[in-house]
Amino acid sequence: MPQTTGEFTVNLVPQTDREIPGLGRMTIDKQFTGGLEGSSQGQMISATTDVKGSAVYSAIERVTGTLEGKKGSFILQHTGIMDRGNPSLTVNIVRDSGTDELKGISGSLVIRMEDGKHYYDMDYTISED
Question: Which entry of 24, 31, 65, 85 is 20 to 30 Å from 126 by CA?
Answer without folding.
Answer: 31
